[in-house]
Specification:
Length: 214
């Protein structure tokens, strides 16, 4: 037993010590490479949250931002799997133009250990408007030419929430395009309404009943 231990630990000890030292150096280099940091950038979407019920975003200077990051190599794979986004609260703002500085704390889904050191642009310009309720005529839309006097629909007017600056130009709410042959075959149909602008919110009803007289 003692002879075996002697051969293992004593004989050719310099070569064994060198092997251990060489293995330690390789392990150290691998570890240092795993903790090395590289610079990356991501293009991420901007979400506007905490909107007051009577306020809407009329326009924004950008819908995405570029985020510059310092990423440890060990987190590069994890970063690719995350869906980072910037959530911008506008609860404290009123109508008009506002300039909002952007901060890294507003960015979600960034792995812990990744450093955000720059956001481009560094601020966003928003135009906020007040939402007002308006009753608007409905305009049936057909894929084919049709004599409008033969068409009946209900309701003929619907309520919408509209940015105040768009009220003067909002004349009607169109329907989804309807095939005349389908209407002739069914006599009566329900047709969805379509908002002419994503900033215009349709209130009830969101569909109309339409019929044709032969």
């Amino acid at each position: 037993m003692m002879e075996t231990l002697k051969r293992v630990f004593v004989e050719d000890w310099k070569a064994k010590l060198f092997s251990i030292f060489f293995a330690f150096i390789i392990w150290l280099l691998i570890s240092l490479d795993d903790w090395s940091v590289s610079e990356r950038s991501l293009i991420i979407p901007v979400n506007f949250i905490d909107l007051p019920p009577n306020i809407t975003v009329l326009s924004a200077s950008t819908s995405t931002v570029e985020v510059f990051l310092k990423v440890p190599k060990r987190l590069e794979g994890e970063l690719k799997k995350t869906g980072a986004e910037l959530n911008l609260s506008i609860s404290e703002f009123k109508t008009g133009q506002v300039v909002i500085p952007l901060r890294g704390t507003e960015i979600s889904n960034i792995p812990k250990g990744v450093e955000i050191y720059k956001i481009k642009p560094s601020s966003i310009v928003l135009n906020l408007d007040r939402l007002v309720e308006k009753t608007v005529p409905v305009e049936p839309v057909f894929e084919d030419k049709v004599e409008k006097e033969k068409i009946d629909f209900d309701p003929k007017r619907v309520r919408v929430l509209c940015p105040s600056t768009l009220v003067p130009v909002l004349k009607n709410i169109p329907t989804e395009p309807l095939n005349l042959n389908s209407l002739k075959k069914n006599k009566k149909m329900s047709v969805p309404l379509i908002s002419p602008d994503p900033r215009i919110i349709l209130l009830e009803p969101k569909m109309i009943r339409i019929s044709i007289e032969e």
